[in-house]
Amino acid sequence: MRHPNNKENFRENFLNKYKNKSGKNKFQKQSRPKSQSVQTLKATVSKNRKGFAFLCFQNKSLKDLYVPPRQASQLFEGDRVQVTFASQNGEIHDIKLIEHRFRELVGRFTPNHESSKNRKSHGWVVYEKRKTHIEVYLPEVPPKTKSGDWIRVKLEFNSRHGDSTTGKVLDNYGQDLPASADIIMVSAEYGLSEGHSQQAITEARNYKLDVEARKNLSHIPFVTIDGETARDFDDAVYVEKKNGGYKLWVAIADVSNYVKTGTALDAEARQRGTSVYFPERAFHMLPSELSENLCSLKPKEPRLAFVAEISVDQSGKKLETHLIEAVIESRRRATYNEIQNEYEANKNNPKWEFTPHFELYEILRSYRNKRGSLDFDLSEAEIKADPLGNPISITKRERLDSHRLIEVFMIAANEAVTEWMLKRKQPFLYRIHEDPSEEALVKFQKLAATVGMSFAVTQKNLHQSLLKFVKTIENHPAKELLNTTLLRSMKQAVYSANHGGHFGLASDAYTHFTSPIRRYPDLVVHRLLKQALHSQKNSSSKLNQELPEIAEHCSYRERLAAEAERDSIKLKQIRLMLKHLGDEFEGKIIGMIETGLFVQLDDPFVEGMISKDSLKDDVYEFDENRMIFYGKKKKRTFKMGDSVKIQVVRVDLEYRYIDFGLVT
Question: How far is it, in rounded angstroms, from Cα 459 to Cα 435?
Answer without folding.
Answer: 9
